[in-house]
Amino acid sequence: MKFGIVVFPGSNCDRDMQDALQNDLNQEVIMLWHKDQDLSAFSKNDCIVLPGGFSYGDYLRCGAIARFSPMMQSVIKFASQGGKVLGVCNGFQILCESHLLPGVLLRNANQQFICKNVYISGAGGTGLKIPIAHGEGRYYAEDAVLDQLEANDQVIYRYSDRNGQVSLAHNPNGASRNIAGIRNLEGNVFGMMPHPERATSSVLGNTDGRQVFRSLLIGAALAV
């Protein structure tokens, strides 16, 4: 399985993602410049990653300008053909702006940038310690959309305590229904605000991020 990491002007987690995938997870990685369009080296069993950062300086809405980059036109087509796409933090914002995922990411409820470790809970219910670093990470969608996401099992992660218990007390940014990450209905596009690539190295004392990559991409037989 190959991973392509898109580099936008203002990306600051692209090399973190490359290091995590190559050195900690032993995966093949190809860096992709935002002005290019060629994804011919990738099949639908591979994965394109939109990393965190401040694409185009976030001078408009976060991810709004990146959505129109040449590479994103190819990524949108790649996703429509069943290719896997993962967006982390700013990448999640870009996926929503591109309408590959529903909803929007709004300013944090406390109106402040938040950078700390949090816990998220997935299908297994176990709390995973994953860092967050965002100012516009509050996931929001209308109740009808949220109900549909839950009915179709499209919510992949919620903010929780270390035991995986979801509550408002452990919601760092005011996200609707504690949502930290979602997928599309087809199950090939994933977006999340926390940074799993910052939690894959044993040197840093936390490898919970490996479980995130394993669980999201298990259908592609990701070996970690």
What does this structure look like?
This protein has 224 residues and is of the alpha/beta class. It has a single domain (2-220), classed as Rossmann fold. It has helices spanning 14-24, 70-80, 90-97, 143-151, 208-216; strands at residues 2-7, 28-33, 47-50, 84-88, 104-106, 114-121, 127-134, 138-140, 155-160, 179-183, 189-192. Strands 2-1-3-4-11-10-9-6-7 form a 9-stranded mixed beta sheet, sandwiched between helices. The chain has a two-stranded antiparallel sheet with strand order 5-8. Strand 1 (2-7), helix 1 and strand 2 (28-33) form a beta-alpha-beta unit. The chain is globular. Mean pLDDT is 93; it is low at 218-224.
Topology (elements, then pairings):
Elements: E1 2-7, H1 14-24, E2 28-33, E3 47-50, H2 70-80, E4 84-88, H3 90-97, E5 104-106, E6 114-121, E7 127-134, E8 138-140, H4 143-151, E9 155-160, E10 179-183, E11 189-192, H5 208-216
Parallel strand pairs: 1-2, 1-3, 3-4, 4-11
Antiparallel strand pairs: 5-8, 6-7, 6-9, 9-10, 10-11
